[in-house]
Amino acid sequence: MTAKPKPLPLFLGIDTGGTYTDAVLWSETGSPRGKVLAKAKALTTRHDLAVGISGAVDAVLEKSRTDPTAIKLVSMSTTLATNALVEGQGGRVALVMIGFSETDLARDGLKTALGTDPVVFCPGGHDVHGNAAKLDLSGLEAAFPELGGSVSGFAVCAYFATRNPAHEIAARELIREKTGLPVTASHELSAKLGGPRRALTTLLNARLISMIDRLVAATEGFLEARKIAAPLMVVRGDGALVSAAFARQRPIETILSGPAASLVGARHMTGLDDAVVSDIGGTTTDVAVLDGGRPRLDPEGATVGGFRTMVEAVAMRTFGLGGDSEVALEDGALNPKILLGPRRLVPLALAGMVHGEAVTVELERQLRAPNPGRMDGRFAVRTGVPERLAAGLTGAEAKLYELIGAVPLPLDRLLTSNAQNATLNRLVSRGLVHISGFTPSDAAHVLGKQANWDAAPARLGAELFARKRDGRGQAIAATPEAISERVLLTLTRWSAEYILETAFAEDGLDGAATVAHALVQRAVDSHPGIARLSVALDRPVIGLGASAPLHYAGLPPLIGNGCVVPDDTDVANALGAVVGQVRVSAEARVSQPVEGLFRLSSGESVRDFTDEASAVAAAEVDVRAIAAKRAKDAGTDSAEIEVATEFSVSTVESQRMFIEAHVVAVASGRPRIAV
After folding, report:
1. 289, 296 contact by CB (below 8 A)
2. Alpha helices in 180-252 (DSSP H)
């Protein structure tokens, strides 16, 4: 009697984006690309992420008629962290700087990133060899009564903590003991030198903890309710997978998670080894390069929202351009240009679908006014995040926040002064309030090119926007259709500019943005001028995102190459989430503080040896053990570990002089699945 073939395991991929949550059910069918069994979308519900997740996953399970218990692995990517940094959002945290001075805040954009969040300076830190200065945490302890109720977490960075993390560990334990709040220490995130940038990375990580924690908790709660007893993985910014518990502690590593997953998905769906991948979502457009089937990584660390971090991630350029980008008009020009982003708005079509007459009645009222108003077509609505995240509001912020509710309120009735507009923008930056207004998604609804929401409020919003005046006092467009066409053409043109800008930057050319703008301008200009310029990419573009078929149809003549939009482009991130591998690393350094003494810094330990060979051998043993543990924590039981050692030496009078050894272990393997 022939045994029945064992059913292949099923894998569930989830991507939580700024606008939509996607789900895909995938199986290894024996073919190189496997098979997508079902896919679905649901609106991302920021007030309760579980609602959007359950909507997408339940639809997938229903379409495929799959028993949830047959799912053996769940993996998710997210653009929530990326979007938060691009839009300047995140929890209020306290930064603790040990051994630094206030002048250090001016470096690497740290002061800008800090904004109005509190900072505490404490004496201490170490030198380059790990020798300690005197630590004094009394100032930190004295600040706890004031900080405890106004921040959602702490970020700790000590001078040369990568050489000796003892003072960060002491501060971390004190904060946990006295406040019980989440703490991020810089040595946990990076082994690189550069204190202010490491502090910046730590600060951003601390801000994102509550957001990623809510996402993971919502997903775990949903899986438990559906009896899906499978490991939960999260895509990291370099495209690798890590366990949900790992991601909860290091959410900064999920910046560019969605885009990284999309690169993995793009390669998987098209089989193209060399391509430019452009992924357009609701909030951002993410552009990266595939070389030889692998994404290029950024050796300097990921740049998101204008901040250069120490997070190893794909060499991705993230632009504030998407289907839900804010549409605005250039100020003071005779023939003003359409401006898009970088802020995401809730499209009027979506707000109208959710809130009905609360939106359309106000838009019709504004249209009846004889003259256009500065705040026409704009609404404010609470995001619905937990009240504890509103800690630390000023009096003006709290007063305005109290006026805004769960139903969109028109700005012309909410705001009475320019000062209040600035206050509202701060509430938006804190992630407490959404602004709803006219977006490219609305323009697509007006033109019948998108039909998933309510087209009526989109059309009203387009009419209001078309009434805006140019420098001559004339309406900028005659009809809602005319202004909508301009908006969509602008989005395609800007997409081409960003793709070319990324290509020029990857080629090391200065002024990439200026050159890209000039080339696209000449391509669309009916009178291109005396100097005829043209450009062509050496590889095709892979267009990803649900709106890619619409917005990228006009790309080829602007970029000089083809644009491939795969069949499952709308769930590329979710698919990429389930076909990746776990990959983690560990580093150690051996230095020579004085001749004949070799100091090993690895993990949270510092040890001294009397000979180089013993110190380097111990370093290799340490990193292998640390990498193995991290790989297990990250979600794989079958990691392969590779160790590489790089020596820095000099030659003095023909004698080799040891300076430093840098030892790196990389562990990789497929994630464990439920049995």
Report:
1. yes
2. 195-225, 244-249
3-class DSSP assignment, residue 641? strand
**178 SS3 class:** helix
Two tokens, residue 37: 């069994």
* Rounded Cα–Cα distance for residues 183 and 167 (Å): 14
Picking from 305, 108, 98, the residue whose alpha carbon sits closest to that of residue 187 is: 98
Long-range CB contacts (within 8 A, 24+) of 242-249? 242/582, 242/584, 242/634, 242/635, 243/633, 243/634, 243/635, 244/216, 244/219, 244/220, 245/633, 246/630, 246/633, 246/634, 246/635, 247/212, 247/216, 248/209, 248/212, 248/213, 248/216, 249/188
- Six-digit token string for 579: 């076909």
Ranges of H-type helices in 581-644: 612-634
Q: Give 7's contacts (C-beta < 8 A, 6+ positions apart).
A: 70
Rounded Cα distance, 251 and 206, in Å: 8
Give 530's pLDDT tier (boundaries 50, 70, 90): low
3-state secondary structure of 571: helix
Question: Are 457 and 362 within 8 A, CB to CB?
Answer: no
The token pair that represents 33 in the structure block? 């690309």
Q: What is the pTM of this model?
A: 0.70
How confident is the prediction for the chain on average, in pLDDT? 87
Cα 209 to the center of its chain, rounded Å: 13
H or E element that contains 454 = none
Pairing of β 153-158 and β 93-98: parallel
**Which tens digits make up the pLDDT trace of 333-379?**
788 999 998 889 999 999 999 998 999 999 999 999 999 999 999 99
> Which segments of 373-474 does DSSP mark as H helices, in order?
395-403, 411-414, 418-429, 440-446, 455-466
The label of the residue with tokens 């204008």 reads 306
Report the C-alpha gap between 544 and 563 in whole angstroms.
Answer: 10
CB 94 within 8 A of CB 118: yes
Residue indicated by tokens 């069918």: 29
Between vectors from CA 268 to CA 265 and to CA 274, what angle results, nearest 5°?
95
